[in-house]
Amino acid sequence: MPERSLDAGSAVPGSARPAVRTVTVLGAGSWGTTFAKILADAGRDVTMWARRPEVAAEIAGQHTNSAYLPGATLPDNLTATSDAAAALDGPDAVVLAVPSQSLRDNLGRWRELLPADTILVSLAKGVELGTLKRMSQVVGEIAGVADDSVVVVAGPNLAKEIAAGQPAAGVFACGDHERAVAVQEAAFTSYFRPYTNNDVVGSELAGACKNVVALSCGIAAGLGFGANTVATLITRGLAETARLGVKLGADPMTFAGLAGVGDMVATCASPLSRNRTFGERIGRGETIEQAQEAVGGQVAEGVMSCRSIRDLAHGAGVDMPITDAMYRVCHEGSDPVTVGAELLGREQKPERM
Ligand SMILES: NC(=O)C1=CN([C@@H]2O[C@H](COP(=O)(O)OP(=O)(O)OC[C@H]3O[C@@H](n4cnc5c(N)ncnc54)[C@H](O)[C@@H]3O)[C@@H](O)[C@H]2O)C=CC1
Ligand SMILES: O=C(CO)COP(=O)(O)O
User: Fold this and answer.
1) pTM of the full structure
2) Mapping DSSP to helix (H, G, I), strand (E, B) and coil, where does residue 192 land?
3) Residue 270 Cβ contacting ligand 1 at under 6 Å
4) ipTM over 0.95 threshold
5) Is 202 annotated as a binding residue?
6) Catalytic, out of 37, 133, 160, 210
7) For ligand 1, is residue 196 a contact (CB within 6 Å)?
8) 139-166 pLDDT, tens digit each
9) Which H helix or E strand runs over 236?
10) What Enzyme Commission number(s) does the record list for this chain (predicted)?
């Protein structure tokens, strides 16, 4: 039984708030499946699209997704298909749950199928290579909607913990407050508490940048360093993230919130994070290919985002030394020990500038 009645999604009488009763989630990886579970537990009728028919059949038939969320049982009001047209037959909201670098291609295939006026929700945490666009900008371009009408999901949301029912909060950012609130209502359960904000730029950049910082924390752990090193990287990583965000129009307070410090701490500290795990393997001396294997074919977004965020920062004239260092390790074959020593030995300066 869903936790909440469908009445929770009704439009507020006399308001412009859209009702979200039916939702389609495009992408059946760990976060897509977990977010679908949240929506279904909150009483929404949810359909997932999975690339592989066998994954869709397992979700629909056995209410599990053993490849991505072993051990989790999915609610009865969550079904799945690998037919995108069937999945997109009239939902009130569509959740985009594929990795950042594949969003443009995937959305291009779905564009003609998207119902008019559906609320588009983006889960991906990354910056597109080449175009250097945030995910809501990619969605805006491909779907032909205003970038800031997209609801962006951010915050400390390690999928496996939430799928196990552990308490967590998230933040839904959108330029249109009514849309953010509509999705907030649709995803409110006893274990997941969504907040809203209107800082799409800051929320998206925070989500993308923390994956890169998590790589550095993983490397530090893999090299055998302790809590001081990790805390230093988290704090200075947040400083460079906020520097970029503010330059690009973000509200500085966003970086003190769930999308900022919240997600930074969760991802940089948890062995469940794919980005941290990837970094840890590199720190232990493994190759990029071995580290990729360690995350089991799932996406460690920071590996690509360190390149795009570095390019974005260069274009904006913003100094991001940790991101630069991760780029050199992941894409130029630099030795993590040397890169770490160079980070420590940079010119001295005040903490805030
Ligand atoms: N897993 C987590 O705890 C969280 C993930 N995110 C973000 O959500 C986004 C999706 O993440 P996950 O669901 O965890 O990813 P995942 O790697 O677990 O699954 C990706 C899904 O997208 C599908 N897909 C479609 N086209 C693809 C392509 N060209 N390449 C690769 N996969 C493709 C895959 O089949 C799979 O179903 C990422 O941007 C991630 O950073 C955000 C918060 C939490
Ligand atoms: O975004 C996440 C937690 O909020 C998940 O992080 P990873 O992609 O590193 O697993």
Assistant:
1) 0.96
2) strand
3) no
4) yes
5) no
6) 210
7) no
8) 999 999 999 999 999 999 999 999 999 9
9) helix 227-247
10) 1.1.1.94
